[in-house]
Write a structure and sequence with these properties.
The strands form four sheets. Strands 8-9-10-6-7-18 form a six-stranded antiparallel beta sheet. It is elongated and about 140 Å long. It is an alpha+beta fold and 550 residues long. Strand 11, helix 13 and strand 12 form a beta-alpha-beta unit. Helices cover 42% and strands 20% of the residues. The chain is built from 14 helices and 18 strands.
Length: 550
């Protein structure tokens, strides 16, 4: 050795290296390990591992090509569970020993965190694709929530967004938790009983709120009793609420429920923040798309107004001129030639038919808001009476309270859903009676249309069992454009649509849309930090010390 240094024993190098080194026999069992290998396997002594099965595959080469985020082809991945139950991921390489080819020398390292980072990056990438491929905002946010649960193994995720006014909160996406239409209603009840909602702090402060061991606190707090059974369906412990922020504005929250034993570390929060940003982009895109559609609708109405003036008004004016000419001839007292009368009649008839055709086309194109002037209840009543007079069907109507408090845009979508359901009854059901029910129940808008017709049918015309009816319509086989539009209108507001066929005949279409929770306005707060903005359900601002909440 140069410089007079004493030779270094290879066993000392093997003992000092930070990578695991092991010798494995032809049966796949450990023969010898260095200290780093013993530590990586979660043991204290080498003797605890000698003779134990090694996790490495030592025969053949990997059969699959490495992915974009995977390690080099000559490095394989093995999984190991320590004696304490911790799961670890090892990247390893194996070579035969020249002195004894039946033995393999294996070098390996812990890539558990690295693999987790790769999965998180892949989840973010897949979510970016989802933003462009999913249909409604609700289905997009459901997909985001599923990606988080699958990637990090969380117990559950909820995504709630604010409406355009920034005052109303809607549950739009979830994974791991059962969809429950009364969730927001029970959340309001907990708030009234004195429970403080962390997600309101997240919205106000626009920063993550982390609550360790939250489930134990909620379980022991009587203020949360209305949600004890529902939240108890999950196996969870800690809670994180992450803001959805777009251009400096809070657009909603992402609530994450952690399984017992999961740590809420810096990298976990970074991953949740990245996924919250993806969700916020989806919300922003949906908002911009809706504005574009509203602008396009307004432009179309203006175009139709111009067409109305340029064509129909001129034609009606011509009809008036023809009528005036006939009147002038009648005032002269002389007999009017039959040819002249026939000519005037033909002209007026042609013009009136043209006007009627143009009006029908424009009405079909325009389809103005039906609920703006009359309200949801009266608009549905008018539609039902018109359908009843036109078809002879016997309709039963039942309206519940609260319809006059519904947001106008939601009321318009609810009317369109009912109208499409009635159209399906007339066109497909072969029914002689139907029932329409509409009202606000348990802080949710509920609408249903039932008939006594032939029930749900598959494409061959055979009845579909009641339990197998999701995604099909009365007499129509698989879900068509009309039912898809109905479902998208419901999902736009975080609602659900169910279609059920009864065993004795008949079909029921039921839509449930949870109404939003109004939140305090941070810009109008009292000096003590409590909001003085009126809420749909009063909020108790005097919260018991130490209480935190979802």
């Amino acid at each position: 050795m140069s410089g007079g240094a004493a030779p270094v024993e290879w066993r000392d190098v093997v003992a000092a290296t930070t990578d695991g080194l092991a010798v494995v026999d032809c049966a796949g069992r450990f023969v010898q390990l260095n200290p780093a290998a013993v530590a990586l396997c979660g043991e204290r002594r080498e003797t605890d591992l000698i003779g134990a099965p090694a996790p490495f595959v030592l025969t053949g080469r990997p059969t699959s090509c490495p992915g974009l985020l995977e390690d080099a082809p000559d490095e394989q991945v093995a999984h190991w569970v320590t004696g304490s139950g911790a799961r670890r991921q090892f990247a390893y390489r194996a070579r035969s020993l020249p002195a004894d080819p039946s033995l393999k020398a294996v070098s390996f390292r812990d890539v558990t965190d690295e693999g987790h980072r790769h999965r998180r990056l892949a989840a973010i990438a897949r979510t970016s694709v989802t933003l462009a491929s999913e249909g409604s905002l609700g289905s997009t946010l459901d997909a985001v929530a599923r990606q988080i649960v699958r990637t990090d193994g969380l117990a559950g995720v909820q995504i709630l967004i604010l409406d355009s006014t920034g005052r109303e909160l809607r549950l739009m996406g979830s994974a791991g938790l059962r969809r429950w239409d009364s969730f927001l209603d029970r959340l309001l009840e907990c708030r009234d009983r004195g429970a403080r909602l962390c997600m309101l702090d997240t919205l106000k402060e626009r920063r993550p709120i982390v609550v360790p061991h939250r489930w134990a606190q909620i379980r022991e707090d009587p203020a949360w009793e209305p949600l004890h059974d529902y939240l108890g369906e999950l196996t969870w412990d800690s809670f994180v609420s992450m803001p959805l922020t777009v251009r400096g504005r809070a657009e909603g929250v992402l609530n994450a429920y952690f399984a017992p034993g999961q740590e809420v570390g810096t990298r976990t929060l970074e991953f949740l923040a990245a996924m919250a940003e993806q969700a916020a982009l989806a919300v922003d895109y949906a908002t911009l798309l809706q504005r574009e559609r509203d602008g396009a609708r307004q432009d179309e109405r203006q175009r139709l107004a111009r067409d109305l003036h340029d064509s129909i008004v001129q034609q009606v004016f011509s009809i008036g001129m023809q009528a005036n000419a006939v009147g002038v001839l009648g005032t002269r007292g002389a007999p009017v030639p039959a040819e002249a009368v026939q000519h005037f009649a033909e002209e007026i008839g042609t013009l009136s038919r043209t006007v009627l055709a143009d009006l029908r086309a424009m009405v079909h194109e325009l389809r103005p808001s039906s609920t703006a002037g009359l309200g949801l209840e009266e608009t549905v009543r008018t539609l039902v009476r018109s359908t009843e007079n036109r078809t002879g069907l016997d309709f039963r109507l039942r309206f519940g309270p609260g319809l006059d408090t519904i947001d106008p845009e939601l009321a318009e979508d609810a009317f369109r859903i009912v109208a499409e359901a009635l159209h399906n009854v007339v066109k497909h059901a072969e029914a002689d009676s139907a029932a329409v029910r509409l009202g606000v129940h348990g802080h949710a808008l509920t609408a249903s249309v039932s008939d006594n017709g032939r029930g749900v049918r598959d494409p061959s015309g055979r009845p579909v069992p009641p339990e197998g009816d999701r995604g099909v319509g009365a007499g129509g086989g698989t879900e068509g454009y009309g039912l898809t539009t109905m479902r998208e209108r419901a999902e736009r507001w975080g609602g659900t649509m169910r279609i059920r066929s009864r065993a004795g005949g008949g079909t029921t279409v039921r839509v449930v849309v949870p109404l939003p929770v109004q939140v305090p306005d941070p810009s109008r707060a009292d000096p003590d930090g409590s909001s003085n903005t009126p809420l749909t359900v009063p909020v108790r601002t005097a919260v018991r010390p130490g209480r935190r909440g979802c």
